[in-house]
Design goal:
By secondary structure, the chain is an alpha/beta fold. The chain contains 15 helices and ten strands. 48% of the residues lie in helices and 22% in strands. Strand 4 and strand 5 form a beta hairpin. The longest helix is centred in the C-terminal third of the chain and has 20 residues. The relative contact order is 0.09. The chain binds zinc ion.
Length: 385
């Protein structure tokens, strides 16, 4: 039966249902004082849903007794291990339903299969998640923290993910992405001194928060986002310089990529275009050099020291250009120059966080959207770790 101290006295099968009659042989004691001297007062049959046998649903029939404790003179109905008071289903059954829902069987299908209400599935599942989080207790702050935003709902807007990049799990999700909405969460967070590295995209709001709450942590820019910003400004600049050429979708894809993975015929096409537009060629060359500079990783201190002046020179050059897009890019990179240079020392990036965002999206779809952020948070914390 999956429960201790029970003895099965009979099994009956009818119309897809299995009815198990059982007797409890374990010790009984007073829940108030633990006394063993009891006097029988009443008896009743208790019918409970129990774990299914394959496709056959099962019912558990138990005789329960009312006792009077001779020690403290209180009366009580007998309690059974694995069955909580006033519940009409055993814990193994509730658990099996929750696990099936966790594994992706929808509430409706599960409700039909087990002939219970779909709201019941949801309620049991919530209990299960709460139990799981309680078992995990409060995990310490991650050593390598990834911070990123993701869209939650139209009503509540964005949420922020705190990701443990070392152990590949979501540490927490918090509603909102502004400094004001994260401030109260971060000020209450314990063990902040454990965080050594924080990885984030180029969001100034997050940076000032991290500097305030994790003063000992090193901030690392996310490589993917930095290169995306460079590409974005570069393409905008291209649109200003040559609006007709920028509309060519084939060229767009070639201009956007790094040069080394291009095929020979693609290279020829790109070179042809660049030869006809000498200004664009200069800008493109510059962007390629900058891109390759940003791709460096796993460097030691000395190697970084050599690269740093190169980056600073490029940023200065950008800010001197007569092109507004390039100046803007230069300013952004200038304000993040430290975090970008730190990127060369590390290999960790927010790719893991982005992966979890995909998983969270799936979670939202499976639930047909969430209205309550706390339910969402509970689910993410259990299922994304
Ligand atoms: Zn008692």
């Amino acid at each position: 039966m999956g429960l201790p101290d029970y003895e099965i006295t009979g099994i009956e099968e009818r119309e897809g249902w299995v009815r198990i009659s059982a007797r409890y042989n374990g010790p009984i004691s007073c829940p108030q004082c633990g006394g063993k001297q009891l006097r029988l007062k009443d008896r009743r049959m208790r019918l409970l849903r129990h774990e299914s046998w394959g496709t056959r649903r099962s019912l558990l029939q138990l005789e329960t007794r009312k006792w009077r404790c001779q020690g403290c003179q209180r009366s009580f109905w007998q309690r059974f291990p694995g069955i909580l008071t006033r519940r009409r289903a055993t814990e193994p059954f509730r658990r099996s339903v929750s696990i099936k829902h966790y594994d992706g069987i929808s509430r409706r299908r599960l409700a039909q299969r087990e002939s219970i209400a779909s709201a019941t599935v949801e309620r049991w599942f919530q209990d299960y998640l709460r139990l799981q989080t309680a078992e995990r207790k409060s995990a310490p702050c991650p050593q390598i923290l990834g911070i990123d935003e993701h869209f939650f709902t139209r009503r509540l807007g964005y949420a922020t993910t705190f990701c443990d990049l070392k152990n590949h799990s979501v540490y927490d999700v918090v509603a909102g992405r502004s400094e004001a909405s994260l401030e109260s969460y971060l000020s209450k967070l314990e063990g902040k001194h454990l965080v050594k590295v924080v990885c984030m995209d180029l969001a100034t709001g997050y940076r000032s928060l991290v500097k305030k709450h994790f003063p000992q942590a090193r901030i690392v820019a996310d490589r993917f986002h930095v290169i995306r910003v460079v590409n974005h400004h570069f393409l905008a600049c291209w649109k200003e310089l040559d609006p007709a050429g920028a509309k060519n979708r084939g060229l767009l894809s070639l201009m956007r990529r790094h040069r080394h993975p291009l095929k020979p015929e693609q290279n020829v096409k790109l070179s042809q275009y660049l030869r006809a537009n000498p200004v664009m060629e200069l800008v493109y060359r510059f962007k390629q050099n900058l891109g390759y500079l940003l791709l460096n990783k796993r460097l030691n201190q000395n190697q970084c020291r050599e690269l740093a002046p190169q980056l600073l020179r490029m940023i200065a050059l950008l800010r001197e250009q007569p092109l507004p897009q390039m100046v803007q890019l230069g300013n952004t990179l200038h304000s993040w120059r430290e975090e970008i240079a730190t990127m060369w020392r590390f290999t960790r990036n927010n790719g893991i966080t982005e992966g979890f965002h995909t998983k969270m999206e799936v979670l939202q779809r499976q639930a047909y959207g969430f209205r309550n952020f706390n339910n969402y948070r509970l689910r993410v914390k259990v299922m994304c770790s």
